[in-house]
Amino acid sequence: VLLRHPENPVSEPDLKSAIHTLMLKLERSGAHIYIPRADHDYAITVGLRMLTLRRVVMARDGLYAVARGQLDLLGYYANSIAHLVERADGAPERGAGARLRDATVKARISTRRSGALHPAAGSHPSAKADGACSALRGRAVTC
Question: How far apart are CA 71 and CA 7, in angstroms?
Fold first, then answer.
């Protein structure tokens, strides 16, 4: 929702309303959405809190906006559900796919470079003593 007009801050009520509308649209189209406590407002509040704690989104004076330098990462997150949004809309938004794909590539490159989103070697809960990660089911990757 914040990617629709990333240069414009959005009030919390307007943002929650738009997210709630999107969630209902996705649910009606058959998407499975986990709603903690079966409470949409709570789920949205927790999601916004996580994004602000990670400094992906900034909250100031009751307005939310994409944090400087975080547009690509937010686009990467949005891309993970883009296929569900397209299905719910019945057709992809014109040009959105290319923008989201570009953001995905940029986010992957920037996180590989900095390693900011990857835990320290061996710190993952499923990491074994040799550095192998059971969560990756035998792939030749360590975590």
Answer: 10
